Amino acid sequence: MEIERKFLIKNLPDLSAYDYVEIEQGYLCTHPVVRIRKKNDKYILTYKGSGLMAHEEIEANLTEEGYNHLVQKIDGHLITKRRYLIPLDPYTIELDVFSGHMDGLIMAEVEFPSVEEANSFIAPDWFGEDVTDDRRYHNSEMIYDNPLK
């Protein structure tokens, strides 16, 4: 089970001190969500169940060859982003700086062990609007023309 909240960013912190990964991902299906992802040099196939804040998530490793074959079959655009990993004890903020057709979007995700913790989370001052329940901010909706314009 994945439990996460999503936020826009109103004041971007200095990111130079944080580790990051380069991510590209595409969607083979959006209902249910079937995603392929390249995360640096790892390749992953993911199934996500329904739900905005909490949903089932199952992952399996792919080979580079398998990823390259499947990426030719995705719907819409490939999502590209740099994900910074920012500690916020006891959590980790995953700050995504998008490029490609979503260039300019900066969004943070925070994962939680329970729905109760997610609901009681107090976001840092530099976070903006909570967009967890706004489908436009889910990557599976961003594969088409920029849904935020």
Terminal-residue CA separation:
31 Å
CATH superfamily: Hypothetical Protein Pfu-838710-001
CATH topology: Hypothetical Protein Pfu-838710-001
Provide the helix percentage: under 10%
Largest sheet: 10 strands, antiparallel
CATH architecture: Beta Barrel
Name the helix and strand elements from N-terminus to C-terminus, one letter apiece.
EEEEEEHEEEHE
Q: What structural class results from the helix and strand content?
A: mainly beta
CATH class: Mainly Beta
Q: Can you count the beta strands?
A: 10
Give structural notes.
The chain has 149 residues and is mainly β. The protein has a single domain (2-141), classed as Hypothetical Protein Pfu-838710-001, CATH 2.40.320. The chain has two helices and ten strands, in the order E-E-E-E-E-E-H-E-E-E-H-E. The protein has helices spanning 64-71, 115-120; strands at residues 2-9, 19-30, 33-39, 42-48, 54-55, 57-61, 75-88, 91-99, 106-111, 127-130. Strands 1, 2, 3, 4, 5, 6, 7, 8, 9 and 10 form a ten-stranded antiparallel sheet that branches. A hairpin with a 6-residue loop joins strand 8 and strand 9 (106-111). The longest helix has 8 residues, at 64-71. The chain starts with a strand and ends in a 19-residue tail after the last strand.
Concise structural overview:
The protein is mostly beta strands and 149 residues long.
Q: What keywords describe this structure?
A:
2 helices, mainly beta, ten-stranded antiparallel sheet, 10 strands, Hypothetical Protein Pfu-838710-001, 149 residues
